[in-house]
Write a structure and sequence with these properties.
Length: 422
């Protein structure tokens, strides 16, 4: 298994281009199931999760042309005119929970989906009850058999759906299903993430009638068929913010190009509170390092709140900040696994249920550490950048699910980082 070795103490400097958003790309690729026409997507990052999605769609019978993408372009062409099965296997769904998003489109277009339940996950239980409740409200019958959800509906009907929690995945699944349902669907307490707006933009280009995406009430008038589409996905806000944190931690000047700072308001406000000088314009986002960071309290919340996907990275920053910070995680119940690894690097973090009390220390010290999930793994690399000595991060396959060529991008900024293949 690959490892990443980081020598700490280098000040990062320069520009880095952000990749397309993984979390926008996954549902958008899956939305190709809604039409028999050709769909062209641009800016698709080269990530393990994207390959898993292509394998999943290929297995259903979607024609995937990834020649140009494989040669580095970011362009993928998909065509779902010969879908031959409606089953998503446990092997794929267990490695990537977003696979469950095929349920809505398969059901809406073909009347049936047979999809493995995702099961547990390192960061929490992560059920799919809200996805299923919404589909049931639209008239689907749902049976659980041998670990699979057998979901059927001759024709989905529009319905009024209230989500108990503003789940990103449930909102996406239901938005796709409702696009081909008969009549009007209203999703209340919908998730408001930028990735939801991007999916809605794709669906509308395909001829769907989705209104209100980005607010907590989304209204979808069902149509009888959808057409092909060409679309460039939004930039990855989590990747952009992770690079900005790398700049702040090392007291460097880092500018992330192609980013959309408007998607990172809560994060920016917190950094400013911590005394960080942010720079950039409409499409760039960066930091002018001054080396001094004050502790701030952070609570993760659904968008536009502070993203849970930046909690681990923020914890690294608070580990070397001046003062005490309380970080509260309200989205996932078990998303502090990086804390123990950071403690091994000399951080002072006390966990109390869903709160982490982080006392800033003068210095972290490099150590062998283990990545436990996607965002935890990037946080260990960030810690390695600022730590004294060498940090060796193992189990980096988590990292490859969500960060495109991170070691190359960080090297270009001046980090001493390398991947050891094994
Ligand atoms: C998406 C993101 C992930 C991010 C998360 C929260 C993708 C591919 N992944 O995940 O990176 O961390 O949003 O911003 O976009 N829940 C239920 N029942 C459900 C669905 C969700 O109880 O049916 C709960 C979950 O357990 C969790 C919370 O709702 O506690 C939020 O989950 P959700 O917004 O659905 O996250 P994902 O879509 O899985």
């Amino acid at each position: 298994m690959d490892k990443i070795i980081v020598q700490g103490g280098r000040r990062l400097q320069g520009e880095v281009a952000v990749s397309g958003s993984k979390n926008a790309a996954l549902p958008i690729l899956i939305s190709s199931l809604l039409t028999s026409e050709t769909c062209v997507y641009q800016g698709i990052p080269h990530l393990v999760d994207i390959n898993t999605t292509l394998k999943l769609l290929g297995g259903l019978g979607v024609e995937v042309d990834k020649e140009s993408w494989a040669k580095d372009s970011g362009d993928l062409t998909l065509r779902a005119d010969r879908v031959k099965n409606v089953e998503a296997s446990y092997d794929l769904v267990k490695t990537m929970r977003a696979s469950f998003l095929v349920t809505g489109p398969l059901l809406a277009r073909f009347g049936r989906a047979h999809v493995s339940t995702p099961g547990g996950c390192a960061i929490g239980t992560r059920p799919v009850n809200l996805h299923l409740k919404g589909l049931a409200a639209m008239g689907a019958s749902i049976d659980q058999v041998h670990g699979y959800m057998e979901v059927r509906a001759k024709k989905l009907r529009g319905a009024k759906i209230y989500l108990d929690l503003p789940s990103v995945g449930a909102t996406e699944n239901l938005m796709m299903a409702a696009s081909l349902a008969e009549g009007t669907t209203v999703i209340e307490n919908a998730a408001k993430e930028p990735e939801i707006e991007d999916l809605a933009a794709v669906l509308n280009k395909m001829g769907a009638q989705v209104q209100g995406a980005g607010s907590d009430i989304i209204r979808i008038e069902g149509v009888t068929s959808l057409r092909g589409v060409k679309h460039r996905v939004i930039p990855d806000r989590i990747e952009a913010a992770s690079f900005v944190i790398a700049g702040v931690l090392t007291g460097g000047n880092v500018l992330v190009t192609g980013a959309r700072p408007a998607h990172l308001d809560a994060f920016s406000i917190k950094l400013k509170e911590a005394g960080v000088d942010l720079v950039g314009g409409e499409n760039s986002f960066g930091v002018k390092g001054n080396g001094k960071i004050k502790s701030v309290d952070v609570t993760t919340l659904p968008y536009p709140g502070f993203p849970t996907d930046l909690q681990a990275q923020m914890m690294v920053l608070m580990s070397v900040a001046d003062g005490v910070s309380v970080i509260t995680e309200t989205i996932f119940e078990n998303r502090f696994m990086h804390a123990q690894e950071l403690d091994r690097m000399g951080a002072d973090i006390r966990l109390e249920g869903n709160r982490a009390v982080v006392r800033g220390v003068k210095e972290l010290s490099g150590a062998p550490v283990m990545a436990t999930d996607l965002r935890a793994s990037v946080s260990l690399i960030l810690a390695g950048l600022v730590a004294n000595g060498t940090t060796e991060v193992s189990r980096v396959y988590h990292l490859d699910r969500g960060y495109e060529r991170i070691e190359q991008k960080l090297s270009k900024l001046g980090a001493a980082i390398e991947r050891i293949r094994g």
